[in-house]
Amino acid sequence: MIDPHEPAWWTSAVVYQIYPRSFADGSGDGVGDLKGILAHLDYLQELGVDVIWLSPVHESPQRDNGYDISNYRRIDRLFGTEADFDELLGAMHVRGLKLVMDLVVNHTSSEHPVFAQARQSRDNPYRDYFWWRDARPGFEPGEPSAEPNNWGSHFGGPAWTFEPETGQYYLHLFTPHQPDLNWENPHVRNEVYETMRWWLDRGVDGFRMDVINFISKDLALPDGLVEPGSVWGDGAPYFTNGPRIHEFLQEMRREVFGGRSGDFLTVGETPGATVEQALLYTDPYRAELDMVFQFEHVNVDQIGGRKWNYRPLSLPDLKTSWNRWQRGLADRGWNSLYLSNHDQPRHLSRFGDDGAFRYESATLWATLLHLQRGTPYVYQGEEIGMTNAGFTSIDQYQDVESLNFYAEATAQGMQPEEALEALRAMSRDNARTPMQWTAGPNAGFTAGEPWLQVNPNHSEINADADLTAEKSVFRYYQDLIRLRHTQDVVVLGGFHLEDPNHPHLFAFRRMLGDTEWLVLANVSRGNLELPPDLCVSGELILGNYAEPGDPDVLRPWEARILDISAAAGGVG
């Protein structure tokens, strides 16, 4: 897929993620759909992105908003028809946009016909497509603690569900409606590869692979460590980056892309991956993945790695993480650059100031992200400065993870308001509120009743208003995207972090040949005097304040990109 000796096309590309049910509703039923996306392709083309990543639109019972697929080769009627999909794909290609589909193959839906067959009997030919095990020795099947091991599900509760009909448990790392596929079975792998080839033949340009580093499990399925205060064990060491993961991915590359010409993209979501593991996944000579999504930087505000146990951002911690990944993948491999997606709260509310300095902090974080080495991802709405939902009642939430957390936490004694506070900060529904197109009813998202409540601030924050605003987040994103498209130093330049321990200053240099750029950002609400070694003269390439200021002082949430090549004398 790539020539290791030449930069791949995606090194200078920008990806835009669409969460279909929340982007735009073309039918008026309150749920976003393919027709809605089609109606806004000109908007995406104007933004300047190169690739659209489409979260799942496959046939699904929607127990986890489409990440539980019951038919991998059909479009769910919720989103439209097969003809709608083909029309959308064609319209994207006419505009020079590539389409990357979500590939969810660690697990499937419990309503998939193959699982329906597998659960019928122990000797069913499809039984080995999934992970079935007897009760723990010494326990009666179905009694408390009789699960084959103590692993907890990512969405709460045990990772095993008992089926009385056959007297065994099946594994699901997520909800009971998402049974894990058994990749040890070559028939499973072959069917996955055939499905991928089918989509490529249809014209799609690649895949974003959901939790792909979970597909290889330790066959012993041992118990995990139970942390204080937890009921279930942490099975991650036994299913994350498992023993055959590289073998499986290399086989996938050969079987799916071998001999196929075209500019394709493979992105692996790899929770828990380290820099060293990411090098293995993305080294072009190993022929596995083009890039990975890692989670280290979006866990820095979580105490003990627990999502709902959060704290204010420590900027030095974030700088340490980003520097580790920038330097670690400098010579081989490739970074995916993101702060928001469908699984993360809005980073503007999480790490920025979504009130008085909404524009400044939105553009500051965009600057820091897009000026790193890697492929930037824009999640729908961040380009106009959308914020967290601000929900005040559990009845407003739809996300299965959020609802499960609230139920478990309050059952264990947490006060409802405390649980709601955690949801307001970290719930995935924060990123899933409908796209805010206009100040009109339902933010212009739908003519019907939206499936999830629209953020009430849409009357002020919407695409129509931002595109015509003097301080437009959208226009600033356009500028950043143009820099990536036109400046080699942004794409391939080296990265050097400055003043790593400063609590408010985020500064780094990008260097390529005789070109050297300095990126400066003040992550605070107050003025910030620059350290003497960073008080350098240079040409302002881009900044988020219209009027020039003191060159040695950064204003609140100010970001600057300076060309300091002349002052630096080149870096050789």
Q: Enumerate the spans where pLDDT stays under 50 for 5 or more consecutive residues.
A: none
Number of helices: 18
Structural class: alpha/beta
Distance between the termini: 32 Å
Mean pLDDT, to the nearest integer, reads 96
Q: What's the overall geometry? A: globular
Q: Report the major sheet.
A: 8 strands, parallel
Q: State the strand order across the main sheet.
A: 11-10-9-5-2-1-13-12
**Assembly context of the chains:** single chain
Q: Beta-sheet strand percentage?
A: 5-15%
Helix content range: 25-40%
Number of strands: 20
**Rg of Cα set:** 24 Å
Keywords:
about 575 residues, alpha/beta, five-stranded antiparallel sheet, 18 helices, 20 strands, globular, O16G_dom_2, GH13_cat_dom
